[in-house]
């Protein structure tokens, strides 16, 4: 189906390892939800060993997404195991969930593959390699 409205929006990203305070991660510029035109500007602000230590401590990586669109402001919180992010060498997938009216109703973070947190990773540059996906709500049974 066609989205009723198509607005650009900015999603501010903050992140935290374990129980640390949130730090700025960057932002996603959504030029068009219809076409899926997005770009992301970000940097880690954590060192690779921060991810390593959080992973070894079985802590979570938390991503907070502050969304502004259509004059509405919403904050979404999503998490994944720090060890998964560490083992993927900061390859993550951020999904923006959009309803039938074109409103963003969720943001979630995940890592590719079915990683098991099996062990060590060679030292790497702590730069995110992020895929941004837009997931549209399906018309379906209510």
General description of the model:
It is a single chain. With 142 residues, the protein is mostly beta strands. It has one domain. 11% of the residues lie in helices and 48% in strands. The chain contains two helices and eight strands, in the order βββαββαβββ. It has a five-stranded antiparallel β-sheet with strand order 3-2-1-4-5. Strands 7-6-8 form a three-stranded mixed β-sheet, with no helix packed on it. A hairpin with a 5-residue loop joins strand 1 and strand 2. The longest helix is centred in the middle third of the chain and has 9 residues. The chain starts with 8 loop residues before the first strand and ends in a 6-residue tail after the last strand.
Number of strands: 8
How many angstroms does the end-to-end distance come to? 16 Å
Shape: elongated
Beta-strand share of residues:
over 45%
The rounded Rg comes to 16 Å
Characterize the main sheet.
5 strands, antiparallel
Side by side, the strands of the main sheet go 3-2-1-4-5
Helix amount: 10-25%
The helix tally amounts to 2
Q: H/E series, N to C?
A: EEEHEEHEEE
Weakly predicted, low-confidence segments: none
Mean pLDDT: 89
Summarize it.
This protein has 142 residues and is mainly β. The protein has one domain.
Keywords, separated by commas or semicolons:
single chain; 142 residues; mainly beta; five-stranded antiparallel β-sheet; three-stranded mixed β-sheet; 8 strands; 11% helix; 48% strand; ER membrane protein complex subunit 10; transmembrane; transmembrane helix; membrane
């Amino acid at each position: 189906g066609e989205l009723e409205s198509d607005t650009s929006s900015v999603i501010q990203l903050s992140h935290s390892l374990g129980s640390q305070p949130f730090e700025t991660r960057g932002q996603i510029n959504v030029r068009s939800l219809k076409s899926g035109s997005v770009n992301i500007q970000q940097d880690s602000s954590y060192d690779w060993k921060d991810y390593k230590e959080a992973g070894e401590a079985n802590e979570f990586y938390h991503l907070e997404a502050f969304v502004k669109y259509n004059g509405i402001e919403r904050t979404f919180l999503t998490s994944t195991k720090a060890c998964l992010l560490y083992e993927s060498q900061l390859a993550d997938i951020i999904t923006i969930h959009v309803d039938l009216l074109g409103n963003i109703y969720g943001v979630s973070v995940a890592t590719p593959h079915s990683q098991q947190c099996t062990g060590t990773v060679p030292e790497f540059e702590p730069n995110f390699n992020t895929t941004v996906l837009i997931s549209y709500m399906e018309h379906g049974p209510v």
